[in-house]
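Hi P.,

Sorry for the delay on this. The queue was packed all week, but I finally got your sequence through. Input first:
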Amino acid sequence: MHDIWKDMFVMGLPLLEKVLRPIIVYAFLVVSLRLSGKRELVQLNPFDLVVLLTLSNTVQNAIIGEDNSVLGGLIGATSLLVTNYLVVRFLYDHRKLDQLVEGRADVLIEGGKVRTKHLKTELITMAQLEAAARKQGFGSISDVEQCVLEPGGTLTFIGKKPGSEDVRHQELIGRLERLAQELALLRSSQPPARA
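Then the structure:
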């Protein structure tokens, strides 16, 4: 029974190393994901998802080292959570540095026109952009007024608003339908004509 408790709570690495390992890996991942672009966060295709899933497994040993104890894992997890809290808190108060770390939003469609240069910069194909628009409920790219790739990797789509001619046309159709209903109601309420 003594060995079970020892394996669970006696760390195989010094405490300082258990704290520093997750912080170093955290900093590396933040810089790497920033340099690889927002595309990795968007997960437009299965390859992007595979990269994100295997990334955590790849750096796992770097975080925990030779220590598989419960206490070591809790210390590593706490180090990651505290580091993330401190970084987010610091960046909240320093907006310019936050923009440097997170990047800026990138407009992919403006005024209904696709900015192919921006798509190429972010390595997003037209097919991937169209698929993302369909996921958001748009029939096609032609229904989109603006599309923004946010710093966190989210694609935001804004639909085109109908023009004044379209609105007027819909109003006229609505009035004609109401007139047709009223005529049908009047005809049904009149007694039949006698010959």
